[in-house]
Write a structure and sequence with these properties.
The protein is an all-beta fold. It contains no helices and 11 strands. The protein has a single domain, classed as Jelly Rolls (Sandwich).
């Protein structure tokens, strides 16, 4: 049975400074192997005040430790549109064939030609400022990682780090 987990943001909500490039960071400590359909929510990852996506990174140890890994995940947001759950990463790998590395960095940026699992729909994506509810966290978008293929041999320990780089382009 799949489980919904929550990552821990470094800040309670992502910062917003007009015209500036900002970075939102969160982490998740693994305590059990992932199964198909597991989800990690990254709360308040995207400010509602109008931002343009620059880069999205997901760093983690091998989550599928099998010599022939099968595990993959999508990474997106909770915005209700066609691309929401895989806006940034589509079928990103949890492991490396042969297990020659211990860390994986899956990312989506302006030159993603050498990274498997990249989605071009997310880079440069503009989140509008019409979702803002003054004085609350309402309107902030959550990051969402969804396991799309279960790992052949799932890791049970390790820490995942999520980084979301954006430019503040709207009005607050």
């Amino acid at each position: 049975m799949s489980t919904v987990y929550t990552a821990t943001p470094v800040q309670p909500q992502s910062p917003w400074v007009p015209g500036e490039d900002m970075l939102a960071v969160a982490y998740f400590t693994l305590s059990a192997a992932f199964v198909l359909g597991d989800t990690i929510i990254i709360p308040n990852m995207v400010p509602p005040a109008g931002v343009d996506v620059m880069e999205v990174y997901v760093y983690h140890p091998l989550l599928d430790t099998n010599a022939t890994p099968l595990g993959t995940y999508d990474f997106g947001d909770n915005q209700a549109d066609t691309y929401q759950l895989a806006r940034f990463l589509l079928n990103a790998p949890m492991g490396v064939t042969g297990g020659a590395t211990t860390q994986i960095k899956n990312f989506c940026n302006v030159t993603p030609t050498f990274v498997s699992g990249v989605q071009f729909t997310g880079i440069g994506y503009h989140y509008n400022n019409d979702q803002q509810t003054p004085g609350t966290n309402a309107g902030y978008w959550n990051g969402v990682l969804t396991v799309t293929a279960a790992p052949a041999t799932g890791a049970t320990t390790g820490t995942m780090v999520f980084a979301f780089k954006y430019r503040c382009s709207g009005l607050i």
